[in-house]
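Chapter review: from sequence to fold.
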Amino acid sequence: MLISGFAVVGALTANYSFQQVSEALQSITRHQLPAALSAGDLARSAERIVAIAPRLLNARNEAEQASVHQQLEIETTRLNSLLASLRDTLNRHDFETLSPAVTTLRENLNKLDSIVGTILQLASNKNELIRQFDEDYISFERILAPRLLAAQARLQQLQNAAEKKQAINIAELVEATRSVQPLQQLQLEVRALRDSLLEVASEIQLNNLALLSFPVERSKSRINALLEELPGDLQSALSPQIILIFRYLTEPLSIIAGRTRELSAIKKGHHLSEENKVLSQRLTQAVDELSASTFAAINAANQEVAKVQREGQIIVLVVVFLALLSSVLIIWLYVDRRIVSRLKSLSDNMEAIAGGNLQKQIS
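The token string follows.
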């Protein structure tokens, strides 16, 4: 019974060791490693999204926007799926560390897509305004150029006649001189206004628009002043075209205001892209910390298993030693002292009887 008891103790110890090893392996293979791998996939998916997002901001038309948006949709769907799979494998603290960053990243992507749509619309509006402005500018040149050429030709004719000492109308000479110079300056100022507006339309720094608006306002003031210097017929002919050109300086057709809105939207888009990079870095850092804690837990489980194995081995060795000791004691105490001694006594008595000593008894 004693030896059987030791055998039972050894078997229970081995079974406990195997059970601990099995539980550790299940914890590692079913929970910790899958969670760490899924979290790593989550971080890589976020990094791919952050890498694709700038292409969305640089889209030049709706077709490019749709193409990049489709790629982001695929990655975002994968990101959501990975996050959902982590809900049941991560503890609450780790999940709540990852979830807000992923949620904010998705929200920023939706905002960025909306902003890109706004930017493309604003750019389209700006290009249309520039086209309309150029049409009005060309119309202005078509009206001004013939009159300027006629005034210059008339002034040259009067000047030639004066040089030849021919009789000329002094009032007509003064009127011709009074017309040519303002017309020339008006042409230059309107051209300068156009150049300034085109510069505004191509400016890429939002802070520079305030500086670029000063030449525009200066040209506007000079154009108004030059119109006042023109004779009545020229004023009547050119004023309607100047009014059309000035439409692009004020809302709702202001080129400056439109470019300001466009650059503001672009700036906001860049801000969201930078925020997405920060979120991706935070997500990667959280995943790294999760992986580190997972491997630490795996190492702790391995150490616990090794400890159980060592303790089990010690217990088994002790049980074996005690079983052997019990066997020796049983042999010595029972077999040797009871059975062997009696057999020896029986043998001695039989030999004595055989020798003629009938006093000996066989018992």
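Two observations follow directly from the output. The first helix runs from residue 2 to 57. Helices lie at 2-57, 62-87, 92-163, 170-202, 209-229, 232-246, 255-354.
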